[in-house]
Specification:
The chain is of the alpha/beta class and 213 residues long. The chain has one domain: Flavodoxin domain (Rossmann fold). 39% of the residues lie in helices and 14% in strands.
Length: 213
Amino acid sequence: MKVLLINGSPRREGNTNRTLEEAAAALRAEGVEAEIAWIGSKPVRGCIACGACARSGESRCAFDDDCCNELIGKAAAADGIIVGSPVYYAGAAGSLIALLDRMFYAGGSLLRFKPAAGVGVARRAGAVEAADQINKYFQINCMPVVSSTYWGLAYGRTPGEAERDGEGLHTMRQLGRNMAWMLKSLEAAREAGITPPEIEPKVMTHFVRDDLA
């Protein structure tokens, strides 16, 4: 079993990475492989809804000049996913959201039913909003959201400050243990012949109605 942890900060060794390291260590202690992947500090394209990924049938984004397709591949090969983000303006980092838009638009079908969790790291406020924003990608893609003893939050501004957030690190350790427990439970379910439910064709509804004109 393996969990992919995505560091959505442009700083490779900052507080977001330190926070994810705590969850990764807990996973490894439970016998689960953990890899932290960094999205880098270069620009990440946003989704332009061109639909090329759907037409190709390859679960890849048409734009292949940043980390998106590599991370789709890593996430597809993993059994669980944890995504962490710093907070700049009351939510997750823009580059990470651009990445997740494309990952889930192009490769969402490869990630269904994999346990996942979002983590927000802030100086003062916005971490709840960041974690919630990330978790919404999982919630619309049939992915169980893994909980902990508190929301997936940690605090720190300058590199190293998250080390002093005892409760935040405790939350991450429990998150790692809970993720490992869920992965082992799902593996036992598969061995018992219990498989994920089928997904019926989605009904797409909008609120622009010709009959109301």
